[in-house]
Amino acid sequence: MRYVFKTSHDQDIDLLRHKSDWGWYAALIALLAAAPALLPAYYVGELAFVFVLAIASVGLMLLTGFTGLVSLGHGAFLLIGAYIEAHALRAGLPLPVSLALATLGTGAVGILLGLPALRLTGLYLAIATLAFSGIVEHLFAHWKFLSAGETFLTVPNPRLGGVRFGSGPGYYYLALALLAGTVLVCLNLLRSPTGRAFIALRDSPIAAETLGVALARTKTMAFALSAAIGGLAGALYAHKISTLTAESFNVLLSLELLMMVVVGGLGSIKGAVLGAVFLGLLDPAIARFKDYLPPAIGAQSGLQLALYGLILVFFVLFEPLGLAGRWAKIKAYFQAFPIYRRAMFKRTKAYMTSERMR
Amino acid sequence: MNGLAVGAIYGLTALGFVLIYKATEVVNFAQGDLLMLGAFIAWTLVVPLGLPYVLALVLTIAAMAAVGAGLDRFVMRPIIGQPHFAGIMLTIGLAFSIRGIASLVWGPQERGLPTPFAQQPRNVGGVLVQESMLAIAAGTALLCAVLYLFFRHTRLGVAMQAASQNQLAAYLMAIPVKSVFTLTWAIAAAVSGIAGVLIAPLLAVELNLWIIVLKGFAAAVLGGFGSIPGAILGGLLIGVAEQLVGVYEPSAKGITAYVVLLVVLFAFPRGLLGEPQGKRV
To answer: A135 and B221: CB-CB below 8 Å?
Structure first.
């Protein structure tokens, strides 16, 4: 067992608990920074895409994992961010400005959705966000002024100081830097009073309100932040797919994002990133695996969907804490070596608390 | 009338949600996929196997009930007592799986399910109505009547109502709550199977039938989540509204249900026939 001997109160909110962790994360960053020189271009592109997914997943984790508000329509925020990015770049704005616009603009939309959503909880909120994403997708597909009258909106490849940031290593480093930034912002937020209010809201809204958490403001803030991060991810996603159609941001994308959060482990930023990595690697793995199957099965798109579903069912039933939870369990097993028991992570069952009054 | 027929299908889907939600507090996002599965099973029985329509309908209902009971027994039961979120994710996972497996088994192409009802219009009370639409309306009405009688006048039906109102109290009164849950799932799946068969003259049998789940949500919310007559009423209203919007603004037809849903949720979340909501601390 490794104990942390605390000598000051600040240690409670340290970003990393052990000094050795700094070394591991530094090594990870160094490895990722060196990746474009070590890996073939295809894998670098895939990795950059995983980073983009991870940004969106961290954004959703903030809302769903920490504030306890389920969003089934996060794809809509990605869509809005992507379209803002495309329009800003087509209007000749430089990349930093367009990224900032995409982030802030989507955040504003998040506030707009968040305000009416204040009245809704749990299930109703999930359904409302689902409807919201359906409407957004429809509007961008049918209203000419939103899509500049084109079904396939091309996204320019921005150039800044002689480097192209829309593809290749430039895109990779941009995504990596933004992911690192997003993760840091979220971690810092979560150890601030605001972040603690989020978590209190998730665990018991009534208790949180009694203790002086401004329910409306906190919920709106969570929505705005999550939407803004989603918009940033959407802006990067736009460069990845390079021609935008509203259909590429459909319900399935939203559900995939939610899946990353669940597979990674609710309530953990590390989990959000792990979930994105898992899903980002699953697709190429399935594509490769297909070659070994009889063509009648391998050629079907249903295989991927069925696997997604089974993985999701598996995680909800057998590993509700997700990949991050599994990691914590393995760590606990070795740290407490001979005395680890399964019951250490057992969750207590509660009687069903009804949302209905009768 | 066309709108009413579509609405009846939405209503049946909403009915499936409401049944499961009332009994188990889980929202079944896989309802649309169960409907699709029912349609595919019926198609397999009618077209390649050549069974008569009515027999196929009965077999489909039985098969879907078995599927529903199996899902509850083997998948849903472990998460009793866990937060709502687990239920939502689990049913979404189920929806993915069912859709994926259906696409592996039957493939993505559209199919027509032949029905014995003719397409030519008939004169009912001065209105021209297609016979197939009448069949949908009649089927829905019959099903509602049967369910109503079941819940009102049989021991089992009353036991199910009791379990949905207070699980613990029902358990203490020696009602086998777990079996009741399984039965509820079986009924809900059977209802969506019926909806899947009835929908045949309106839409082709294909994978995208699951989209109806979204319309079903709108119907259930409009009717007040948790109210069985409300679900049917909401479905009918949404079907008619969609049809009317489609006449005036064809491109907006697809999002009518969503807009209705959002407006209802924000303006009067209780819905038309919902119960007063409150929360115990």
So the answer is: no
